[in-house]
Amino acid sequence: MDALNMAWQRRQPEAGLLHHSDRGSQNTRDVYRRALERLKAVQSMSNKGACWDNAVQESFFSTLKVELDLQLARGTRAQTRSEVCEWIEVFYNRQRRHSSLSYRSPVAFEEQAPYPELSLH
C-alpha cells in the first residue's frame, strides 16, 4: 500500500491506468483492490499459472536481489529498506542502462518519450 500510494503521488496518472500484477496475496487483498478502485486504476492479472505476464517484475526483483546481494542479512529492516529505496531511486531509475530501453536509464528514456506526463521527475 505504501509503494502504491507513493507511486500515485509522484506520478499523478489519469484515471484508467492499467496496473498489472501477479496473483500474489498482497495484490488480491480487498484493501488493495479497493485502493486501486479509489484511484480509478484498472487491475490486470494473468491467469493462474501463466508466468509470462509478470516476467518484467520477476526480472526486476532478480536484478535487485543479485545487484544488492540481498541473500546476506545485514543491518536493521529500516536500513535494508533505505538501501533498497536508494538503489531503485538513484541507481536503477537514473543510472542503470536497460537493454529494453535501448541501453538508456528509465529517466533518460522518459525524457525522450513523446509523453511528458510519464516523466519520473
Protein described:
- The protein folds into 2 domains: 1-50, no CATH class; 54-121, no CATH class.
- Helix content is 49%, strand content 7%.
- The chain has helices at 2-11, 25-28, 30-38, 55-67, 77-92, 106-112; strands at residues 18-21, 42-45.
- The protein has a two-stranded parallel ribbon.
- The chain is globular and about 35 Å long.
- This is Integrase catalytic domain-containing protein.
- InterPro entries: Integrase_cat-core, RNaseH-like_sf, RNaseH_sf, Transposase_IS3/IS150/IS904.
- It comes from Deinococcus aerolatus.
Major beta-sheet overview: 2 strands, parallel
Shape: globular
By DSSP (H or I, 4+ residues per run), the number of helices equals 6
What's the total count of β strands? 2
**Percentage of β-strand residues:** 5-15%
* Average predicted local confidence, pLDDT: 83
Order of helices and strands: HEHHEHHH
The unreliable regions are none
Spatial ordering of strands, largest sheet: 1-2
Give the end-to-end Cα distance, rounded to a whole number of Å.
21 Å
The residue fraction in helices comes out at: 40-55%
Task: Tell me the radius of gyration.
Answer: 16 Å
Could you say how many structural domains there are in total? Answer: 2
Q: Output the structural class.
A: mainly alpha
Pfam family, one: rve_3
InterPro entries: Integrase_cat-core, RNaseH-like_sf, RNaseH_sf, Transposase_IS3/IS150/IS904
Protein name: Integrase catalytic domain-containing protein
Domain Integrase catalytic: 1-114
